[in-house]
Design a protein that fits this description.
This protein has two domains: 216 residues, 3-Layer(aba) Sandwich (Rossmann fold), CATH 3.40.50.620; 72 residues, Tyrosyl-Transfer RNA Synthetase. 54% of the residues lie in helices and 7% in strands. The strands form two sheets. A three-stranded parallel β-sheet has the order 1-2-3. Strands 4-5 form a two-stranded parallel ribbon. α4 crosses α7, α9 runs antiparallel to α12 and α10 packs parallel to α12. It is globular. Bound molecules: adenosine-5'-diphosphate (ADP) and tryptophan. Adenosine-5'-diphosphate binds next to α1.
C-alpha cells in the first residue's frame, strides 16, 4: 500500500495542520510505503518572495521531522525535485473537463478572500491530481478541506483510464486513490472559532515560543457567559482544542466544570495552554536535535528526491506510452 500527502510551505505549521494531516501521516508510515512532500510548486500560487519560499520549505521539512516523520520509514521530499509532476499535470489538463474545476470550492474561497485569479490558482487541483497519481498512491491522508481535491483526482484518473487505458494489461493507467480523513479532527478551530488556517490569522503554531503560544491561547474568542453560569462545552473552541491534547479524565473533568459553572473562560484557557505546551514538548526537543545536525535535512531531502524520482519515472513511462508521447 502506498500512502501520499503534501503540505504547502506557505507559513509556519499550526495545530490544525498537525491534527488534520501530520499526525495521521506519521501514524500511517507503519502501514505501508509513505511518501510526504513539501508542496513548493503549489505554494508558488500564493508566495511571491523567493527567499521566504526557500526558507519555509526547509522549515516545513524540519517541523515534519520533529513531529515524528521517520525518514527510515517514509520518504520526505520537495515537490520541485520531481518536475515530472508538471508534465503529468499538463497531460491531465488536456482531458480535464472545465466544468469540474469551475466547481472547486478552494478556488472560489481563495477568490472570495481577495486573491487574484490566476491560471495557476485555478488549475491547482490538476497539479494536485498529478502529485497523487504519479506515485500510484492508494491512500491520501488530508484534512476535510482537501476532500474535493481527492474526488477530482479520482474523476481525472477515471477519465484517463477510459480515454487511454485500453492498451494497459488491466485496462487502466491509474489507480483510484482514497482520502483518509480523521473524523475526530475533521476541522480544528482557530482562535476565532473558524477553521484554523494560516491565511485567516487565527492559527496557534506548533513551534511558537511559550510567550506567543500563551498569548494566542489567551486570545481565543469566547461568549460573554458570566463566571458563575454553566457553559456549553460542545460549542467552545477552548474545549474542542483541549479535547485534542488532554487525557480522557482531564477532558471529562473540564466538561463537568463547564456544565457546573463557577469557572471562568480565563482559567480554562490557562489549562489549555499548559496541556498544549506539554503535548508538543517532545517535538520541540526533537526539533532542537535536528537543528544541531547541520546536514540532516539536506540528506533526508536528497534521499527522498531519489526515491520519489524512481517511482515517478516508472509511472511516467507508462503514461507517455499510453497517450502516444513515446
Ligand atoms: P492552511 O489552511 O493553514 O493554509 P494547508 O491548506 O496548508 O493549511 O493545509 C495543510 C494540511 O493540513 C491539509 O491536509 C489540510 O487539510 C490540513 N489542515 C489545515 N488546516 C486544518 C484544520 N484547521 N483542521 C484540520 N486539518 C487542517
Ligand atoms: N493542496 C494541499 C493543501 O493545500 C497540499 C497538497 C498538494 C496535497 N498536493 C497534494 C495534499 C497531494 C495531498 C496530496 O493542503
Amino acid at each position: 500500500m502506498r500512502i501520499l500527502s503534501g503540505i504547502q510551505p506557505s507559513g509556519a505549521l499550526h495545530i490544525g495542520n498537525y491534527f488534520g494531516m501530520m499526525r495521521p501521516a506519521v501514524a500511517l508510515q507503519a502501514e505501508g510505503e509513505a511518501l510526504y512532500f513539501i508542496a513548493d510548486y503549489h505554494a508558488l500560487t500564493t508566495v511571491r518572495d523567493p527567499q521566504a519560499l526557500r526558507e519555509n520549505s526547509r522549515r516545513v521539512a524540519l517541523d515534519f521531522l520533529a513531529c515524528g516523520l521517520d525518514p527510515e520509514r517514509a520518504t520526505l521530499f520537495r515537490h520541485s525535485d520531481v518536475p515530472q509532476v508538471t508534465e503529468l499535470a499538463w497531460i491531465l489538463s488536456a482531458v480535464a473537463p472545465m466544468g469540474l474545476f469551475e466547481r472547486a470550492h478552494s478556488y472560489k474561497d481563495k477568490l472570495a478572500r481577495g486573491m487574484a485569479a490566476t491560471v495557476g490558482l485555478f488549475s491547482y487541483p490538476i497539479l494536485m491530481a498529478a502529485d497523487i497519481l504519479i506515485y500510484d498512491s492508494d491512500i491520501v491522508p488530508v484534512g476535510k478541506d482537501q476532500k474535493q481535491h481527492i474526488e477530482m483526482t479520482r474523476d481525472l484518473a477515471v477519465k484517463m483510464n477510459e480515454t487511454f487505458g485500453q492498451s494497459e494489461p488491466d485496462g487502466r493507467i491509474f489507480k483510484l486513490p482514497e482520502p483518509r480523513i480523521q473524523a475526530a479532527t475533521e476541522t480544528v478551530p482557530g482562535i476565532d472559532g473558524q477553521k484554523m488556517s494560516k491565511s485567516y490569522g487565527n492559527n496557534i503554531d506548533i513551534f511558537s515560543d511559550e510567550k506567543e503560544m500563551r498569548k494566542r491561547v489567551m486570545s481565543i474568542v469566547t461568549d460573554s457567559t458570566p463566571v458563575d453560569a454553566p457553559k456549553d462545552p460542545a460549542n467552545s473552541t477552548i474545549f474542542k482544542l483541549y479535547s485534542l491534547v488532554a487525557s480522557k479524565e482531564e477532558i471529562a473533568d473540564m466538561r463537568e466544570r463547564f456544565l457546573k459553572g463557577g469557572t471562568g473562560y480565563g482559567d480554562f484557557k490557562k489549562r489549555l495552554f499548559e496541556k498544549l505546551w506539554e503535548y508538543f514538548a517532545p517535538m520541540r526537543k526533537r526539533r532542537e536535535e535536528i537543528l544541531n545536525d547541520k546536514s540532516y535535512i539536506d540528506d533526508v531531502l536528497a534521499r527522498g528526491a531519489k526515491r520519489a524520482n524512481e517511482l515517478a519515472n516508472q509511472v511516467m513511462e507508462r503514461v507517455r506510452a499510453a497517450v502516444g508521447l513515446r
